[in-house]
Amino acid sequence: MTLSYFITGTDTGVGKTLVSCALLRSLARRHGRAVGMKPVAAGADTAPDGRLVNEDVSALRAAGNVVVPAELDNPYVLAEPVSPHIAARLAGQRIDPALIEQRYRQLATLADAVVVEGAGGFCVPLNDTETSADLAQRLGLPVVLVVGLRLGCLNHALLTQEAILARGLRLAGWVANRIDPAMASAADNLDTLRARLAAPMLADVPWMAQPDAAAIDIRLPDPATQAEGGPR
Prior knowledge:
Layout: E1 3-9, H1 16-31, E2 34-37, E3 40-42, E4 45-46, E5 52-53, H2 55-63, H3 70-73, E6 76-78, H4 84-90, H5 97-108, E7 113-121, H6 132-139, E8 143-148, H7 153-166, E9 171-177, H8 186-196, E10 201-205
């Protein structure tokens, strides 16, 4: 069975890609073939050959050790750095979670471990009716929550946990990412998160002027939290 996790965050810009890359590197060392997936990437540059290139997707590919067709590890790459449903509308597209699930299933046959990085926060819209939370529920994977330590993170983390558990998903673990080096009472906030999040802390990522996934010591979630992904 392929070992897979869905990575979400308390908000956009909290370090999901950094944590996903660290987890990928750890999985590759311990489980062999590891590949990242960014189902929807909003915000991309145009390469000389006309392809859209997203930096998060490039980072995931560099952290994994399996080369796959782009349509499998990044089904949707959109030019505008806005909410996925808006970026897709501007590009004349509609994001289809069923297609993403199909691509994930194909990807999972090519690797021993897959890290799926969601877009934005857990409930960000993907189209007019479905959200990233709907995608996570469709895939049925254990969830790793990245908490960006800054003012407001307690509310965001606890609400996200509620949303994850309400959909019948497992919260496999969480990562504290110190994105605000001047945050007041950071230690007290961390203690509160430890007490109130119903999963182990997998890493406490220090503030880094130049974020480096290779420098993160991340604990792998307990394999007992792994579940067969599937529609629910």
